[in-house]
Amino acid sequence: MGGHSATLTTYGTSIDGIKVQYGVTGYIDGQAGGFVFTGVRQLDGTVSFDLRLRGDLFVDGSITGRALAGENLIVNSAQIGSLVVDNVNVKDGGISSKVTKPNSGQSVSLTINVRTSQEITLTASRRGDPSRRFPSIGFQGGNFRIFRNGGLLFESATVVSYQWDPTAGGNFIILMPTMLEYVDMPGAGSHTYELVDTNNCGVGGITLSVEESK
User: I need a labelling partner for 113 at 20 to 30 A (CA). Which of 17, 26, 42, 144 fits?
Assistant: First the structure.
């Protein structure tokens, strides 16, 4: 019609009881597409089946198999248990990385290799100890101090609860759980961050987390 032609051919055959073949071939203006399903018994007695497709495959669901081979693979997301790569080229900021380190004391440090000049997020936290209280005179809840490569980067007060106890005749402080975030732009390279809790009550249990994201 209108100078265009399209044909569809279906064929199937069985050869000598050791080979089967079924296929569908289409031609539109001389361009071919379709699929061929083949089954054959090998010389060692095993049987193999093969499906060959010429065209695009669209699947509304999942594909399960033991192996996947291809010249080009384009996916929106992937979960991979083990990956071996000969060459990889990742766009600037295309990978997220996170380093987290806890410590039962009052200081903790970690090192992260930053690949880009984008922002990174630091999260500092303290478990606190609501079960213990300390006299308000002589004891301090302390601050969070964050250092980068040995230099003070940020300092902030931690959360402290004040309690008046008339039976004990005084004011007391309780070191509460504390969490804060700080955004830094250290630039590409290896950087060491340290978190110090300056409370003089001897309450430890802090965690520092540094995340670089695209």
Answer: 144
